[in-house]
Specification:
Elements lengths: L4 H13 L6 H16 L6 H27 L10 H7 L5 H4 L8 H4 L11 H32 L4 E2 L7 E8 L4 E9 L2 E7 L9 H14 L4 E4 L5 E8 L6 H26 L5 H19 L2
Antiparallel strand pairs: 1-2, 2-3, 3-4, 4-6, 5-6
Length: about 300
């Protein structure tokens, strides 16, 4: 007989209680889980238990953020007396006097290990590590909920291997105008939407397409089109969550992004191939004439 959902929570609490090397910050999480455990009925279902654990993780992460912020702002603030007068009356500072850049990246900045860039403060390092772990736990929970959502909708998808991070789902979507590839990537508390469109960009018209994309993006309520250096047109949006998964929000975002593609796909495809309407041709010709004339004056 499978274990009841509440038993899984009890096992998690027991594992933390039996950890001899439990840090003070993880002990705070343990206290939150104990408090939440007391409020749950023995027959609580899986969704209720999952939401309870996520609530504890969110509270714990918020507390870590506050502590980290306090750590980073502990340095004594500069005295305010005479500060404005000093800025107004002092001489202008020439950056070139003391700051030089010869184009070389120093070894300490080029290191790949982020720990090497952190201050030599063990407590601060521990806070950053715990924050990262909390983000990984939330990402794992979001990925599970997102996969369950796709399965419930009957949407075909391909997921990255279990050992690969971050988790990414690739969905081929047949829209009215085209077959698009939706890529959904879970990073910490965010779900990143990237929709790749079947548009072949002529390098000669890349600048024209990019200019039009900027105009289109100004009208979008969320998300933005862009043309990658490989000549791929994508629609991008990053959905930042509070750590919880909302099906209605994903429905809204998927529908909205699909609508933006339907509204703009044909125009983007034409411009990517240089098939411009008369208005765009005349506008572009005028702009190029002004640019060439300006360049000739140098």
């Amino acid at each position: 007989m499978p274990a009841a959902p509440i038993d899984k929570l009890n096992d998690l609490i027991c594992s933390l209680e039996n950890d001899e090397h439990l840090s003070p910050d993880m002990n705070d999480l343990l206290l939150l889980l104990r408090e939440k455990q007391e409020t749950l009925p023995p027959d609580a279902d899986q969704d209720t238990v999952d939401e309870a654990v996520r609530a504890c993780l969110r509270s714990h992460q918020a507390a870590l953020f506050r502590r980290l912020e306090e750590q980073l702002t502990e340095e004594e603030a500069p005295a305010e007396d005479g500060l404005e007068d000093g800025l107004e009356d002092g001489p202008g500072y020439d950056l070139e006097d003391d700051f030089e850049f010869d184009g070389e990246i120093p070894d300490w900045l080029a290191q790949e290990d982020p720990d090497e860039l952190l201050p030599d403060d063990e407590e601060l390092r521990e806070l950053l590590r715990l924050h990262s772990e909390a983000g990984d736990l939330i990402a794992a929970s979001l990925a599970e909920d997102l996969e369950a959502y796709l399965q419930a909708k009957g949407i075909y998808y391909v997921r990255t291997p279990e050992e690969e991070k971050p988790v990414r789902y690739e969905l081929p979507f047949k829209l009215k105008s085209c077959l698009a590839r939706f890529l959904l990537t879970v990073v910490k508390t965010s779900i990143i939407f990237e929709v790749r469109l079947p548009i072949s960009v002529d390098p000669l018209y890349r600048m024209v397409l990019t200019s039009r994309i900027n105009d289109i993006n100004d009208e979008l309520p969320f998300g933005s089109f862009r043309c990658t250096k490989e000549g791929i047109v994508v629609l991008h949006y990053m959905h930042v969550t509070d750590g919880s998964f909302c099906e209605d929000t994903i429905d809204f975002l998927m529908g909205g992004l699909s609508e933006f593609i339907e509204e703009n796909f044909e125009e983007l495809r034409r411009m990517a191939a240089g098939r411009l309407h008369r208005f765009h041709r005349e506008t572009l010709s005028g702009q190029l004439a002004e640019l060439l004339n300006d360049l000739e004056t140098f």
